[in-house]
Amino acid sequence: MGAGSREAVHQDYILRMVQQFSGFLVRVLRLRKEGKTEEALALLSDAYGKLAGLPASLVHALSEDDLIVLLRAQGRLDPERSLGLAELLREEGHTYDDAGRYEESFPRYLKALRLYLEILGEDEDLAETRIPGLDDVIEQLAGLDLPPETAERLLAYLEDAGRFDQAENLLLQRLDAAPDDRAARDAVVRFYRRLLAKSDAELIVGGLTRDEVVDGLQRVDDPVS
After folding, report:
1. What pTM value is reported for the model?
2. For helices 148-160 and 102-122, what crossing angle results, to 10°?
3. Which candidate, 92, 77, 76, 80, places its Cα nearest to that of 51?
4. Is 72 exposed, middle or buried (0-12, 13-18, 19+ CB in 10 A)?
5. What is the pLDDT of residues 183-207, one digit of tens each?
6. DSSP 102-169
7. Which of 208, 170, 82 is nearest to 134 (CA)?
8. Cα–Cα nearest to 160, from 186, 189, 134, 127
9. How far separated are the first and last CA of the chain, in Å rounded?
10. Which of 8, 41, 150, 180 would you call most buried, defined as having the most Cβ atoms within 10 angstroms of its Cβ?
């Protein structure tokens, strides 16, 4: 099967997943708008078993790493199952946000993000496929501390997608949290040096200018020669 055919298959199953979930998510959204948080949560909890094949209690008890290990028990992630699980976690996170229960929404957004990124990394043909919900959870988690594995995967995704300003923010956030961490500083330096190999047009589309990249590099390393 050629690359174009494989990409079409990926687009097809993502479309099927969206169609499968659309009616269900409309019901959840209606309950959220009506302020019926507990009813919405009950509906979502029940859906874990029906749509993702895992009990909600198990999903929430596992760490991001352990959840991925479980989903890989048969070798590869099932993209449709994993994407459905990510969508449930994301929607549950929003429902907890509606109730002001941010300590409950945060771990759900984290697991959703990790699942989205794992799905993208599973098959190179998915790299060009738009994953519903990914940008949403990235926005929800902006500025917050992420587990190292998730942060590394997110950084790679943002850079590969040409979203250089967001990748820069993630790296500088890590450096600000540990200014004496040489590894964090070196990662920023390598990032800026990679960007200097890009064209001016690529940098601008990615949210940065060449002058900003040069200035950033000068702040964390020796002046550019």
Report:
1. 0.85
2. 60
3. 80
4. middle
5. 999 999 999 999 999 999 999 999 9
6. HHHHHHHHHHHHHHHHHHHHH-GGGGGS--TTHHHHHHHTTTS---HHHHHHHHHHHHHTT-HHHHHH
7. 82
8. 127
9. 47
10. 41
